[in-house]
Amino acid sequence: MLLSPGSGAPLPAVAGVVAKAFGALGLLGLLGLLGALGLVGVLTASSATPTPVPDGLLDQRDRTAATRAAEPWVWPTGTRVVERGWEPPSDDYAAGHRGIDVPAPIGTLADAVDGGTVAFAGPVGGRSVVTIDHGGGLVSTLDSVQPLVAAGDDVRQGDPVGRVSVGHCPATAPCLHLGARVDGRYVDPMPYLPPAEWPVLLPESAWPG
């Protein structure tokens, strides 16, 4: 049997007294009665005390969110070889290389590096590009490709979105240029990708013939 704090009286009996007292005393009188019985502190404490969070649960949530945020893109042509890497410009208008170049024969399918919505697909400055909005301010750009999608299309990671064409790189050394922007500013796309396989440049004396 449950007892009311400090009184030794069963809670059902206390509840009956409280019900009768409420009709006779009104709200203010009831509060005074509850205070005398020591129930006000019990009621307020039980409603104000938050449910404790098990140790480590918040840490696990943080780790899960961080893992999801760090999930890599896929390489747009399957190859991880980088011909030319990121070369940050000194300012927004200075020369540089705002992305990476991946060697790819003309006509190679170029895939979406991650899921999102096609923000643009078409010519820019004489070259055809596909831009995909991945949400959270993150955007990827594939240059130069003949688009297989249109603005507004939803794509999943790995979906073909274009075919490599001449533009960013010449026909004699075709490539796909992958760019990344965060909140409108170009950033190095490499942290979003699995590790690259950089080409090994041999000394001239090592070449056959």
Number of helices: 3
Radius of gyration: 33 Å
Q: Name the poorly predicted regions.
A: 1-7, 39-68
| Overall shape | globular
Question: Main beta sheet, described?
Answer: 7 strands, antiparallel
> Which structural class is indicated by helix and strand composition?
alpha+beta
Distance, first to last CA:
99 Å
Query: Could you name the CATH homologous superfamily of the domain at 100-192?
Result: Glucose Permease (Domain IIA)
CATH topology of the domain at 100-192: Glucose Permease (Domain IIA)
Q: Please trace the helix and strand order, writing H or E for each element.
A: HHHEEEEEEEEEE
Would you state the CATH class of the domain at 100-192?
Mainly Beta
Helix content range of the residues, please?
10-25%
What fraction of residues sit in β-strands?
15-25%
- Provide the residue-averaged pLDDT: 74
CATH architecture classification of the domain at 100-192: Distorted Sandwich
Report the count of strand segments: 10
List the helices and strands and how they pair.
Elements: H1 11-37, H2 39-48, H3 57-69, E1 100-103, E2 109-111, E3 116-124, E4 127-135, E5 138-143, E6 145-147, E7 154-155, E8 160-164, E9 175-182, E10 185-187
Antiparallel strand pairs: 1-9, 2-8, 3-4, 3-7, 4-5, 5-9, 6-8, 9-10
